[in-house]
Specification:
Layout lengths: L1 E8 L4 E7 L4 E8 L6 E6 L4 E7 L6 E7 L2 E8 L9 E5 L4 E7 L4 E6 L2 E7 L8 E6 L5 H18 L8
Length: 167
């Protein structure tokens, strides 16, 4: 299923809506700007927090934690120096390891597990900078894959110095 992530920025608050291909709102991502660490709340349409996304401060690798009910479900690490191998690595609580591969400069990348593509993220079809598509192939991990897409996009924005333009 295809999802569309639309970013909106306000003076003291950032949010992104995640919609289905039929324009039904599914999740909202709120960024809390006035915090020491980068913190996001992943909220469903009823206002219930599904997960929190926390950017760890003072780490050698760029690390983001995904928490559900206070428990770390996933850890995303970005290598600072990459000669060979993956730039992003994801370790899940259940022991699985995911790879995030692709053309990060153009924001075209896949989330893979053991060579199988679970999701494809693309800004190719959008002329506006504030929207991108996530094609999810694995229905059982839909929420996690959407959260991972938001995390990688946020990390790439930070690296380009555009810290306040996207989540």
């Amino acid at each position: 299923m295809r999802y569309l992530i639309r970013d909106r920025m306000f003076a003291f608050h950032e949010e992104a809506w995640i919609e289905t291909e039929h324009r039904e709102k599914v999740y909202k991502v709120n960024r809390k700007l006035l915090r020491l660490r980068g913190t996001f709340a992943f909220v469903d349409t009823q206002g219930e927090q599904v997960a929190s996304i926390v950017k760890k401060a003072l780490t050698f690798h760029h690390t983001i934690l995904i928490k559900q009910d206070g428990v770390v479900e996933a850890r995303i690490s970005k290598r600072i120096f990459k000669l060979f191998g993956d730039r992003f690595k994801v370790r899940l609580r259940d022991g699985r390891r995911l790879r995030i591969v692709g053309n990060f400069w153009d924001r075209e990348f896949d989330i893979q597990h053991e060579g199988t593509t679970l999701a494809h993220i693309s800004r190719r079809w959008f002329s506006l900078r504030d929207a991108y598509a996530v094609d999810v192939m694995s229905r059982q991990d839909t929420t996690l894959l959407l959260i991972l897409a938001v995390c990688v996009d946020h990390t790439l924005q930070d690296l380009k110095g555009e810290k306040l333009t996207n989540l």
